[in-house]
Fold:
Amino acid sequence: MIMAHRSEPLTQESEPMAGSGSLTLCVVEDHDEAYHAWKKAGFENRILVHFDAHIDFAWIAPTPETLLEQSSLSEMLATLHRTPFWRLTEKTEEERVHLGNYIHQAIRANIVREFIWVYPEDRKQAKQRRAVRSILETTAAFAPGLFRLTRATDAGYFEGQIYGRRFLALPYSAYRAYVPQEEALLDIDLDFFIIQSLYSRHYPYTDVRTPSFWLSPSEFVADLLASGLRYEFVTLAYSVEEGYTPLRLKFLGIELAKRLLRSLSEEEELHFEALKDLFRPSASGEPESTLRRLEEWIKVHPNDAALRFNLAMLLLERNDIPRAVTQYRKAIEDDPTYRTRYNHPGPALLELGLRGAARTSYDRMKQLDPHNPHYRLFELEMLIAERDWGQARLLGKELLKDGVDHPVVRTGLAESCLRLRRYQEAWDALGPEPPVSAATSRYETGYLWVKARVAERLDRCEDALACYHGLIRHGEHSPGLHRALARIYLRKRNFFKARRHLAKAIRLAVLARMSRWWRRKATWDSQTS
Amino acid sequence: MGLTDLIVRSGPKACERYARAPHVKWRLLEGRAVLIDANEDLFMHLNDVGSCIWLGLDGKKSVDQLISDLDNAFAVPSRRLRKDVLRFLRKLSLMELIGKVESPSV
Structure:
C-alpha cells in the first residue's frame, strides 16, 4: 500500500525522431523518479525545462558529513550560516529526495546547469504573478546565500540564481521567447494541464470537486513543436499518487505520451476526444447522452480502464450504484492502479482541511468498494480525529488482523491504546520502525512521537530519548519536543541538559508567538518592482 | 536515591577512561576539533587544548594519563591543568559527547 520509490519508471520508450536523434520518453508516477532517470541516463550539466504547477524545488539540508568535508573552518561556518535549515540527519541527501525537492538534488548533483520553470497560464495574470513571486521569495528566503532573485517583470518573468546557476520562471505563454539554443531535458508534470491558478485556495491541489483541464495535450505538443525547443529525453509524471492529478484525468498523460512519440490515428483521436468531452462544460448539461456515448466507446474498447472508471464515477454521481459497481470492478480488473488511495478527491480534501467534504467523498467511494483498505484507513483517521479511542482501537486491531500493515494503522492503534492507558498494548502495536522512504517520511514523525510517549509511560527512558533525538533529526523543533527532552533528562538526573532543553522550549515558545507577525522576506539583487 | 545523588552528578575521576560518543561526528580542521552532535543539532569547535583532550579520548588512556600528556605539551601549572581538564571532561560528559568506558580496553 505504501508507494515506495520504484527503481524503474512505469514505461520507457524510444522513438526515432525527424533528423538524426531519437526521443526517449520516460513515464513515471511520482515526479522524483525523473531525477533517478536522469541520473541513470548519465546526464550532466543540462538545461532543464520544467512544465509544472509546482516548482518542485525545496531545500535539502546538508548532512554532518557534508559540513565536515569543507576545507576550512571559515568555509564550514559560512555554509552553516547560509543554510538556516538546521536539520542534521544520518540520511544522505540522496535518501531524502522526494517529489517536492528532486530538482534541488539534480542541481547539486550537477545534472542541471540551468533551471527553467514554466508555470500555468491564468486569466488573472496579476494574481498568478503574485503567487509565483510569493513561492519564489519564500523558497529564496530560507537560504539567501544560495538562492538569489535578480529580476522580475510585469509579464511574470522571474530570474535568479540557485547555487550560482541560472534560474528562470515563466508563464506558459512566454516560454517560446526563452527557448534555449542547446538541447534541453524536458520534464512535464501532468498536473500542469490541470492546476491552473496558483493563487487558488485549493493550491497545491486543483479544485478537486470539479476536475477539469486548461490545456489539452494536443495544444501543448503543437506549441512545443512550434517553439523550436530541442529535446531528446522527456520525463512525464502522472502525479496521481499524492492527489495532484485527479485519477479521472490520468488519460491526459497517456494521450500526451503517445503524442510526444508519434501522431495519433483517427481512432485514437476520437477516443481521447470522447474522454476529454466528459470534462467540458457542455457535458454536465446532457448527462444521458454523455453516458450513452461513453457506453458506446466501452463497447469498442472493452478493456479501457479510463473509460470504465469515468463511467463508474458518472454513474455514482447519479446514484446508480449497481451499474457503477460493475464498471468500477471491471476498471480495477483491467488496471489495478485504479484501486489507489487517490482514486477520489477525499485525501486531497482532507489535506486541505475540508474534513466534511472528504468524508462525503469517502462514503460515496465505500459504496463502490467497501473493503478497500484505503477507505478503512480513513475511517480510522476520522475516529482518531474525533477522539473515539475505543472504536479506533477496535478498528486498528481489525485492520492489522486483515494484514493492512501501514504506519497510520500502527500509530493510530498505539495512540488509542495510549489514551486508554493500555501502555504495553500500545508498545506492541508499534512494532519495529517502518522502513524509510520518501513516501513514508511524513508518517515517521507521527510514529516517533507516539513511540516516545509510550516509551516514557513504560519508563523506557533510553527508547524515548532515541525517538526524541530521531525527531530532532527530522527537523522537529517545537517547544513540546524540548519540554519532553527536559523531562527525560530530569529523570536521568542530567540537570545540565534538562536546563538547556527547558531554555530552548521557552525560547521557541516565545519565538513562535513573535513569528506570527513576521514573515521571512527574500532579498532582491536589483531594484525590482 | 539520596538528595546528594539527586543534585550532584559525579565528575570524572583520575583512574577512569573516557571515549568519544559514537553518534558524534568530528574532524580535525586547522588543528582544531570540529564536533557535530546530530542528536541535539549541536555544532562546536574546540580550542587548541580542548582539541588535544578530544584527540586523547580514545577509551584507552585514563584521565590521569591524559593530564600527564597535556602537562608535557602545554606550559601551564599542573594544578590548573588538572582542574581545567576535569571541568572540561565533566562538561563533555554532561553533554553526552563522551562516555565512560566500563572495562579497560586491551
